[in-house]
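Example 3.
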Amino acid sequence: MPRAPQTAARLEGIGGSVFERLLPRIRERTPRPTRLHIGDAADPPAYELPLDPDFREDRAHWFQYPNTAGIGRLRRALADHHRSVHGLDTEPDQILVTSGATNALSSALQALVDPGDEVIVPTPSWPFFRGMVRMSGGVVREVPFYTTEVRTDGLQRIEATIGERTAALYLNTPNNPSSRVLDAATRRAILEIAERHDLWVISDEAYDGMAYDGRATHPLSLYSARPENVLSVYTFSKIFRFAGLRLGWIRAAAPVIPSVDRALVHSVYSASSLAQELVLDPVRQFTRWSAGVSADLQSRRDLFLGTLDLPVEPCEGTYFAFLDAAPFCRRGRNPEDLIVECLDAGVLVAPGSDFGTDYGSWIRACFAAESRDAVEDAARRLRRVLAG
Amino acid sequence: MPRAPQTAARLEGIGGSVFERLLPRIRERTPRPTRLHIGDAADPPAYELPLDPDFREDRAHWFQYPNTAGIGRLRRALADHHRSVHGLDTEPDQILVTSGATNALSSALQALVDPGDEVIVPTPSWPFFRGMVRMSGGVVREVPFYTTEVRTDGLQRIEATIGERTAALYLNTPNNPSSRVLDAATRRAILEIAERHDLWVISDEAYDGMAYDGRATHPLSLYSARPENVLSVYTFSKIFRFAGLRLGWIRAAAPVIPSVDRALVHSVYSASSLAQELVLDPVRQFTRWSAGVSADLQSRRDLFLGTLDLPVEPCEGTYFAFLDAAPFCRRGRNPEDLIVECLDAGVLVAPGSDFGTDYGSWIRACFAAESRDAVEDAARRLRRVLAG
C-alpha cells in the first residue's frame, strides 16, 4: 500500500541488537576498545592471494568483515562521484554499498514491500526484478511503457494502474532491454505521479553513463521535488565492467539507508571488503576513463545496427538492441522457432517473453558480450535468419 | 509445514525463462555459439586492478558474470574437498557457491520456508539466522539446547517443539556462541528426528575445521540415512579467514540445488567470479595449511581461558568463549550494566541477549579478533570487571 517514505512492516522486530543501541555510547567513551564482540580474525589468511603487495599493505583490512553499509572510503568516494558526475549533493550516509545491483534491488524490495503489496513494473523490463517482487510476496503489475508504439499514453496508463495496494514503482533508464533513455520531462512527470500517490520509486540506474548521441543519464532523484521516496540503484557491472566483483550501491535519502541495510545484512551480511577496496580508484578516476568506454559502445552499436540493417527500437543507451520479430513470423514460424533458428545459425539471443507478457515476439541482442568481429558476424547471421 | 524433500511454494512461477528450457538443446546443437543473449562485456575493464599479472592471464574471465551456481573449477574443487577432508562422496552438482554463509542460509530459507512455516532454532544461536527466518515470513521456535545445563533433555525438547507448521530445523556445530561441538551420537539422533518428521535440516557448518582437543567436525549429512533433506552451509570467512571476500557454499543433494540457486539469483544473482578464482588454490591446498590455523586457535583459546580463569562453557570449537554472567550480577548490576562496565574497561563483548531469549545474562567474547597480546590483556580486564 502507499506508504513512502515509511518502510515495510516486515522489518519490525528484525535486527536492532542491544549492541546497536550501545554503539553511540561505545564511540563516545572508548575511542580504541579491544574488539572481542565480533567473530573475525586479526591474523591474515594462511594462504597468500595473488594481489599486488603494495595494495595488500595499503588496504590492511581487505580480508576482514567491513561495515555492513560499506567501507567509509568507498561511501565517501561514491558521494563525491554523484556530486562531480551528476551535480547532485550527496553525503556518505546516503550511500549503501551492496553485492551488485541485484542485491540492491532485492534488499530495497525487502525493506519497502510487504506481502500483498503491488509493485508497478513498466515493461519491457529486466526479468529478475519481477521474480524478486514475487519472492518478497509482492504482486507485479506490468505496464507496457518503454517501446515506441506505447509511448504516447504510457504515463496515463502507469497512473491508472495505481491502486490501494500499490507500494512502489520500478523505473529503469537507460532501459534494459529496449535501450530507451527517458528524457527529462518524462522523468519529472513520473516522479510527480509517484509523489502524488505516496509511492516508493525504485530507480534502477544500472546503465548510468551508457547513453549515446549526447544523451544524459542523470539520476532520477535529480528530477524529484521530494527525493526522500526515490532509491537509485547502481552497479559496477556495466560501464565499470566489473561484473565479476558483484558490487553495486544505492543512493537514497539518509533516513531509509539503515532500513535497507537491515534487509541487506539478512541476505549477504555486507558487500566484499576486497571488492570495495579494488573499485576505490576506478571510482575516483571515473571521469578519466568513462567517456572512452561509452564512445566505444556507441561505435559498437553503430557497427551492429548498420550490419543488421533491420527495424529495431531506437538504440539510445545500454548495450542492447531490441526488435519486434513479429513481422518475420510468417509461414507458421512462432517467436520461439526464431530463437532456435538463430541458435542454429550460431547466435544466442534472448527471447522477448523474458522481458514482459507483452513482448513475446521480441528479441534482445547484446552488442558488447563478444568481440567486435564476432558481433559484426552475428549481425549478418541474424539478418539472414530473420529477413531471409 | 513438514515437506522435505519438497521445496517451498514461494518458488513456483519464479524464474524458469524460455532460455533455461532451451539450454540443453543449445548445448547439443551449437558447441560454440556467439553469445549475444547476455548483458556482459567481452572487453576487460578500462581501469586495471592491482592483481598479479599471471593470475589475470590465467583466469581470463575474472571480471565477467559467472554461472549463477558457481564456476565449474571451484565446484569441482569443493566436491573434492568434501571427499578428501570429510570422506564424503560429493559431485560438483551438489555444490552451490554463495556470497558467504549468510547468503547461503538466506537463500536456503527462501527456497524451503513459506510464510507461516515454523523453523526450530536450538539456542544459543547466531542472531542473524533468526532475523532471516522472520524476513522470509517464517516463525522462529527457540529451544535452549547447546549449553551444559540443558544438555540432558535437549533432544526431547526439540522433538516436542515440532508441530504441523514446522518446516525446518537449524543446526550449527561447532556452535556460535556456545563453542559446543556436537558428538556423533547427538548428530545422528537429531537427523533421525528430522527424518521422522519430514523436516529440512539447515546445517550451519561455518566453523567446520575449528574444533579442538582432537574433536571432529564432520558434516552433518554424514550421519543421515536420508541426506536429501540436509543442506550443509560453509563459509570462507572462518578457518579460511577470507571474510572480506564474502564467499561460502552449500553442499546438498543435487535435486535441491537448482531451487536454492533460483532463490540466490533473486538476492545477489551469483557469487563473485574474482573471489571464486582467488579461493581455488586455498581450497585445493586445504590440508596443507588448515591444521596450523586450528592449532593456533587452540593455543589462543588456552591463553584466553587461562588468563580469564572464570567458569565458561567448555570451549570445544569456534573462536568464542561463552559465559553466564548471572553469578556476577550481584548488588543491582544487570547484564547490560556488565557489558557497559566491560566497555569502560576497554573491552567490547557481545551481549548474550543477541543469541536467544534464554541467554540474556550471558556474554560472548572472540579470542581471535585481536592480536594475541591484546586478547590476553582483555582477558585480564574482563576478569577484573566480572570477578572484581
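Residues 287-387 of chain A form a domain with the Aspartate Aminotransferase, domain 1 fold (CATH 3.90.1150.10). Residues 308 and 383 of chain A are 5 Å apart (CA to CA).
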